[in-house]
Amino acid sequence: MIRSMGEAIFIGISNAIASPHCSGFSTEGPCMIKTDDQRRWWFATHPEFSSHGRRSGTKKWEKAFGRGAADRDTNEKHHRPTYTAAEEAEYLEWLKSIEQDKKGLESDPHTFLDLVPYRRFLTTPIAALKGLLRSTVRDAVIFGVKGGRSKGPGEWVEVTRSPLGLQHQSIMSGKPITERDGRLCIQEYRLNNVKFDDYKNGKLYEYKGLQGNLLNKDGVFPDWCRARKEAVEEAERQLKAAQGIPIVWKVGITQVKAYRQALGEIPGIKIVP
Amino acid sequence: MSGYMFRQRCRPQGDYRIDQILEFLALIQEAFQCPNLYDSNSRVVDLKKESLLKIFEKAAKRLLPDLGATEFFYTIAPKKRDNNTVAVEIHTGTKPGEVLIDTYNISMDNPSKLPKFDYFCKFIEIFEPFEAFVAETDNEFTLDSYNRQHDIPQFSRPAIIRGFHYLDETMAKSIGGISYCLKAPAWHVEEFCNGVLIWLVPAPFDSGNAEHLEAQKEIMDYFKMPYSKKNNS
Fold it and tell me: Is the sign of the CA dihedral B5, B9, B14, B17 positive or negative?
């Protein structure tokens, strides 16, 4: 039974000290601290958790039975004098709490869950290996390019753009919006004279902001809408410039249908929400 | 019932096919009973050979000439924003070897604008595409035809079977050959224009009609195409 926050912290930490594979603040599990002396020593060296480090009643009963009374066989009733009923009840409660502590501090048999904290020894090297295969890390190692952007076959250039959709593009690509002579600019990726919103992990990206007001009841561009024509022309331009590099158009979830219908005949462009 | 799109896919020839486009547009005027066709700027299109050639050459220069040119024509001026508008999307003049193909599509947002299917047969006879079909917007999205088609290199095989679907000999071969297609479980299958024409149901395909969906599932099972929607990310 845990009776105070300090005690809970103590048990959890003592478990963690005792066994590195013990996962945190559990009242059960292996522990090196088994005696009251050890417990006192621990609290003495960790004053932040308790001012005295002893459970209530310990001082009183140690005075009666001598130091280390709690660690001796608690059934040695013949050593103690006779007490009143209230004192007897208090004494028994104290003994019971000590028994519970000892029981709680005994080691459990190892289970599969004990191995869970060690999984990092397996997952970390795998993640590192995967990272090496990604173009961002590969370029960082081979070309010394820092940051999350790979240099790739093109170049980053600053272009002037209208405010419409610029914030969305900035959020998606991570490129800041700057102001030059009263005009808003952003960095875009230029490849074969065609600009893309982003280039990362070996893919060219185009980000499309929400255009819900342009869609009809079926969720596609209406036949009279020029947006479809513009999307088709842009996709064709990008396709030629990309020269086989995968192109991804990230569009709003409600626009997937519209863009897939508009670009249905253009291979090599992946439309994802 | 959602909108429809008639798509025709043709192998690139490196030629604008102006004569065929003229014939196609004239037939569209008849099918949709519109005296004029308009461009994206709501101007009336001069349906003469020289004018059309100029339009496509200009569009090709604006993009990349090898990729061909894309032009849109409308039965109602786009500035009127009329939902009865029918849009004609033409991509033509692609050089052989490029990633794109020539397409001659008609988009009908309003299902009531769907003309008689005889017109679609005439359109097929004009361009002799390798694949042509009438796609219903909802059905396309439900069966994820976009991703299915893009998983097939060079559009070399049909991704799904639609209510009205034409396949030329090569395409028919990719799913078992013309004789196999002719035995497909559909309302009507016939040899047409050196290929095969499948009419799945007697009426325009409606994804809200359980019988139509059942017929589509049956024929796709016959051609060993998975019917359920793919799990795409």
Answer: negative
